[in-house]
Every structure is written in C-alpha cells, then in structure tokens.
Amino acid sequence: MTTPLLSLTDVACTRGGLRILEGVTFDLLAGEALILRGPNGSGKTTLLRTIAGLQPPESGTIAAEPECIAYAAHADGIKSTLSVAENLEFWAGLFGTASIDEALAAFDLAALRSRRAQSLSAGQKRRLGLARLLVTGRRIWALDEPTVSLDQSAVSLFAERVRRHLDDGGAALVATHIDLGLDARTLDVSEFKPARVATGAFDESFL
Amino acid sequence: MIGLLKRDVMLAMRAGGGFGLALAFFLIVVVLVPFGVGPEREVLARIAPGVLWLGALLACLLSLDRLFATDYEDGSLDLLATAPVPLEGVVLTKALAHWITTGLPLTIVAPLLGALLNLPGEAAGALVLTLLVGTPALSVLGAFGAALTVGLKRGGLLLSLLVLPLYVPTLIFGADAVRRASDGLTATTPMLLLGLITLGTVAIVPFAAAGALRVNLR
C-alpha cells in the first residue's frame, strides 16, 4: 500500500512546442482518486496524455508499472457501423478480458447491446466509452472530462463505478469541472503554469 | 491482433467502408483503356501487363488515406496506442486488413480483366502470382504514407506524392514479370526481385510507420 501506483516527479509537458506545465509532482496511491482542475487550456489533457504515454514528458520522470493505465479521452473511439456489443468486444479482446456483460450492465447498456453505435445518443456513446474502462482491467484510470454529455443519473452511476474501482485497489485520475461526490484530493493544474520565460514572450510577439 | 484484423475487415465490409471502391475503380480503368487506345488486339496484348498493374496500384492507393484517418478522428488510435499491443503490430495488422479488402480481391478478378485486354492465357497465372506477391508491399508502404499524413486534413495528395515513388520498384518488376510470361519467356528474375521487395518492406516498414504514428499522436 505504501508504494504509489503512479508517481510523478518534476514533470514538464509541452503542447504545440510551448511548455505549458512544469514541476508537476504527485503520488497516486491504490484506492485513491485525484481530481485535476484548472481553467480551459491549463494543460489537464496534456498532462493526462503524457501520463498515458502518448507523448513523452519534456523533463522529469513518470514512474508506474508498465501497461497499468487505461486512458479515456474526449473521443470515445466508437465505430459507428459496429453494434454496442461489437465495439466493446473488440476492446475486451484487445485487452484480453473475457466478459463484456458486467461492463454493459454497469453502465446500463444491456438493452442497447445489439444497437448500431451510430444510432446512440451522445450520452449513450459516452457511457459505452466509459464501459470500455471496465473491460481494460487496468488499475489506473486516466479520465479526461468523463462526464461530458452524461445526465444526472448517469453521472451518479459513473461516480459509483469509480468508487467501486477504488475499493478494489484501483486508482483514478480525473480531469473534470463538476463535483463527482468522490472523496478525493484536488490538484489545481494552473499552479504548475511556468513563469513566462523571455524566449516564450519573444515567440508570441512574433506570431 | 486477430480481433483488430476482424474489426477492420468488418468495418470495410459494412456500409461506408469502401470495400468495393478499389474493385470498381480497377474494373473501370481496365474497361475504359480499350476505348482510349483502340481495339487493335496486338497493341492491347502488349500494354495489358502494364495497364493491369497500374490499375491495381492506383486502386490500392485510393483507399489508403482512410487507413489510419478514421481511427485518428474517432479517438480509437489514441486508445490503440495505449492498449497492450505493439504499435508496429497494429500497423502490420491494419495493412493486412487493407490488403484483404483491396489487394486480394484485385488479384482474384485480374485474370478476368486480363481477358478484356487480350492478355495471353499463359500469362494469366503469372499475373495472379505477381499481384499476390506484389500487392502486400503496396499495402504496407501505403500504411507508412498513411501514418505520416494521419494528422492532416485532406492528406490524400501528400500521401500519393509520398507513396508513389516507393511503389515504382514493385510496379516495374510486377509488370515486367507478366510481360515476360506473355512473351513466353521465363519470369523468374523479376518474380524473385518482386518477392524480395515485399519481404523487405513487410520486415522494415512497420517500424517506420509506428514511429511516424507516435510522432503524430503527440
């Protein structure tokens, strides 16, 4: 329990060649959730993509077990011509988990399982995207605005799922603007905004 | 990996997947050539190997820009990159799915279309064989081009410019082997070179394509 699942030390991230975060340091323990907050453009998504391994940090270290992070982005990665079950079965097969029934039930999708994804509503698509997290079987969830287009009951369904995931020894890293009712620490990303360096200002005045 | 292959083939077969696109294009090109060139049978027989190979090559090119672009747009590519499969394997699998939905059907209908161009019967076998050996290289090289241009809107033109020069050796040896066979010569040397290009491409290019994808996902 004492060794953190995920540990960031003095991490700096860039987006579009511009350094937007530096000195990010935190530990994430098993059973713990961390809420990332900050205004638009403050680097929440960039930080999550860096942690998920989609881009390397500019400096600093990210220590985690290999392949233990499940990333959920703004886009859900749903193929509109496949059915709900086919979409989920594909990801389950890729991550080597057997059953999709529990994930379908968890997000109230069982009745929609043979429906084509193109005829789902935005909220139903989001629920399908979140159900994918359950079939990954990974311990750390890195979630980018998971509650967009979810209604009130779906949000509480999701919060309940996250709580259960934490109870099972998982951890979650959630960038969100709403209150999920989770017992979680909050990290304000805008604290890590780098002080304006001379070259940055120079570039900007030219552009 | 097999799941990914199944998904990609299924997506191509379903509505809007573009399964018939390459096939229809190939058919149209080959049917139209005699109208453009004239009905002299000797002329048609002489140009048949080149026309058939060129048609197959352009048909392959037609569906390449969607190879990674659809997955990039709906976010699947991000998720695939974080899934427990190597990105090189993803590239190879998607190239294989592309080949199954374009290269393989082209290979199967090519002898029928060869008859339209008065290709000698004894060259039909060589045509099928060269397409079977050569088209996988087209799909894998195309996957590299698609990986390079994945983040671009309307990257199709750039993709064609990048990929066509890489297709030239395959085109030369493929068409040459068919030409030799239709002239009654042995086609062993161009066949071997064609196979060599395909094997080398399949072995090396997925690494380059995966590298390009990683850069584009940043």
Folded structure, characterized:
- The complex is a heterodimer of chains A (207) and B (218).
- Chain A contains six helices and eight strands, in the order βββαββαααβαββα.
- Chain A has helices at 44-52, 84-95, 101-106, 122-136, 152-167, 198-206, and strands spanning 6-15, 18-28, 33-37, 59-64, 69-72, 140-144, 171-175, 185-188.
- Helices cover 32% and strands 24% of the residues of chain A.
- Chain B has one domain.
- The longest helix of chain B has 30 residues, at 87-116.
How would a textbook summarize the main sheet of chain B?
Answer: none
CATH topology of the largest domain in chain A: Rossmann fold
Counted up, domains of chain B total 1
Based on CA atoms alone, the radius of gyration of chain A comes out at 18 Å
CA-CA gap between termini of chain B: 23 Å
Helix fraction bin of chain B: over 70%
Indicate the overall shape of chain B. elongated
Write down the overall mean pLDDT of chain A: 82
Strand percent estimate of chain A? 15-25%
Radius of gyration of chain B: 18 Å
Count of helix runs of chain A:
6
Structural class of chain B: mainly alpha
Oligomer: heterodimer
**Name of the CATH superfamily of the largest domain in chain A:** P-loop containing nucleotide triphosphate hydrolases
Low-confidence stretches of chain A: 198-202
Q: How would a textbook summarize the main sheet of chain A?
A: 5 strands, parallel
N-C termini distance of chain A: 49 Å
By secondary-structure content and strand pairing, the structural class of chain A works out as: alpha/beta
Report the average pLDDT across residues of chain B.
89
CATH hierarchy: architecture of the largest domain in chain A: 3-Layer(aba) Sandwich
Shape of chain A: globular
